[in-house]
Amino acid sequence: MRLLFQAAKDGKPWLNGKQLLHDGGSQSYTLSNLFKRKPVWRKLIHSDGRGYYRMQESIRRTIQADMIGECAIY
């Protein structure tokens, strides 16, 4: 999720699934295999059906708003 969030912040939200798994240190071959026991992942991560993934836009906005709120507190 951290990699997807960072990609969204950088303006390039779509990431290759294989690269995501590699960069995240996973030994799984697919995100669906990695999250097979956590079906909620599809509510957090959006697939283009061709091997690329991004964080769901609503989730990204929520996390970003929370981060802005925390910065305002300090």
Give the topology.
Elements: H1 2-9, E1 15-16, H2 17-23, H3 31-34, H4 41-44, E2 45-47, E3 52-55, H5 57-73
Antiparallel strand pairs: 1-3, 2-3
Quickly describe the structure.
Helices cover 54% and strands 12% of the residues. It has helices spanning 2-9, 17-23, 31-34, 41-44, 57-73, and strands spanning 15-16, 45-47, 52-55.
Helical segment count: 5
Principal-axes geometry comes out as globular
| Tally of domains | 1
Largest sheet, if any? Answer: 3 strands, antiparallel
User: How widely separated are the two ends?
Assistant: 25 Å
Total beta strand runs: 3
Uncertain runs are none
Approximate strand percentage: 5-15%
Could you describe the 3D structure shown?
This protein is an alpha+beta fold and 74 residues long. It has one domain. Helices cover 54% and strands 12% of the residues. It contains 5 helices and 3 strands; from the N terminus they run αβαααββα. The chain is globular, with a radius of gyration of 13 Å. The chain starts with a helix and ends with a helix. The mean pLDDT is 84.
What features would you highlight for this structure?
74 residues, three-stranded antiparallel sheet, 5 helices, 12% strand, globular
